[in-house]
Amino acid sequence: MLTAVVLLSSMLPSAVDWTSCPVGPTAWFSLRDSLLQLLTTPALLLPLLASLVLLLCATARLGWAWRALLPGLAVLLASLLYSPLTTAGLSDWLDSQMPPPHPPSPGPALAVLVGRGPEIAAATTAQAARLLRQGRVQQIYVSGDTPATAQRLLELGVPPGRISGDSCASTTWENASLTGAWIRHQTAASSLPAIVLITDPWQLPRASRAFERQQLTVFPLAAEPALLPAQRNRLALRESAATLLYGLQGRL
To answer: Which residues pair with 222 in a beta bridge?
Structure first.
């Protein structure tokens, strides 16, 4: 993966300020991704849940009627996690976590795109390119993504000198902290630009709060990706779990 990123970054025009990073320790990320994969995949979670409930019933020496009823009931209740109603409810709850709005920015700002995969990048890059053409931002920073996203911006007509980014951030918190460090390296502390933060609607509240913890002025802007209902449900579940975790970690 690192070789592919380095190769792609070497193909970008030299005017694109891009930073590639070596892959660090991945034990925690592998565990995290495995747990999230389990939570967001009904074909994995529901049989495991049924087996666990059946084991508990056997341990408690419940009768066969209970052993037949309780696993099915547990699966039925858990399957509600993957319903459109749950997706809508979690999406509304995530939206309620958005930080209070700031007054309008007096001048051009910096657009920041958060790496979330090619489907979401298709929507965020289109938003960022549009803002640049309208003069509402003067630079675009791609945080924690592959150089393919920078290449897409070039294809949308964004000049190479207006694009910067990195493939270093692997979490939303690192997106915020590494972008904040890059901004401060480029700009005097007394004149930090406002941030137009562009990502999908599910990540946007948590990402906005993480960026504000870097003492940045953030204007959240949701990009609506073209996703299937199952993909939207997966993002709603994933971001709800991540938001709760960030709350426990004191990052919100």
So the answer is: 199
